[in-house]
Amino acid sequence: MRHRATLAAGGALVALVLAAALLSLVWTPYDPMHVDAAHRLAAPGGGHLLGTDQFGRDVASRLMTGARTTVFVGVVAVGFAVLLGVPAGIAAGMSDGALGALVMRVGDFLLAFPALLLAIMLAAVYGTSTLTAMTAIGIASAPGFARVGRAATLRVMAAEYIDAARLARRSRTAIAWRHVLPNIRDVLIVQVSVAFATAVLAEAALSYLGLGTPPPTPSWGRMLLDSQELLFSKPELCLWPGLAVAAAVLGLNLFGDGLRDRFDPTLEGVR
């Protein structure tokens, strides 16, 4: 795996984001929510590596804490999508009748409601919060896992060892747990990386629109929203969170491509 440049580059960017998020749990250069009006809009360098915003808050500290928020929302949202979509996809792939068609139709219905629209609906009912963003992103990502899980399960169910398991009178649950899930694991891992990248973009977009993580908790999307009024006078305030989102999404996409090249047997002849 170390010889695959795509996987290595993606892994490095993902590791950088994770390292910033984990480090922010125990240390940041300054309190990310401390307002210092005497040093507002300070230039990068000196006591503040990336400068300060219009309230005098340290930008580097807020970027680190924003990474933690992004990773947390992404992990919970993608985890929710996996728990919701994977069992549904496996059940649809193992069923030849109406259940499989029903699961796919429900997935098509959910695909008609993107994360932004779901967040608006949930915010109108329950209010704006991090939980609203996580729920909206998780529900919007679940149909993708269901479709991938169903397609991979159909291939596994056509194998001869599944017929042997049926002849041995194994239950459907045992077949799903011992035979189907281990053989579709690699495909699901790739889907997780893709869904995580989508979740990062969705969380930033929702926070930018005021539907995600509420202030004063730092968020990359919220930082973009707060700095847009200074776009022409202090463009670096928009640059840093924008670069953070781009690095995270690029790293996850490259990492997902590398995993696909590593695990997809259909690409064996083109590596």
From TrEMBL:
Q: Which CDD domains match?
A: TM_PBP2
Sorted keywords for this record are:
Cell membrane, Membrane, Transmembrane, Transmembrane helix, Transport
Q: Which SUPFAM superfamilies match?
A: MetI-like (SSF161098)
Cell compartments where the protein resides: Cell membrane
Pfam families associated with the record: BPD_transp_1
Annotated ABC transmembrane type-1 domain ranges read: 67-256
Q: What is its main location?
A: membrane
Q: What is this protein called?
A: ABC transporter permease
Q: Which organism is it from?
A: Streptomyces blastmyceticus
Which lineage do the record's taxonomy fields give for this organism?
A: Bacteria, Bacillati, Actinomycetota, Actinomycetes, Kitasatosporales
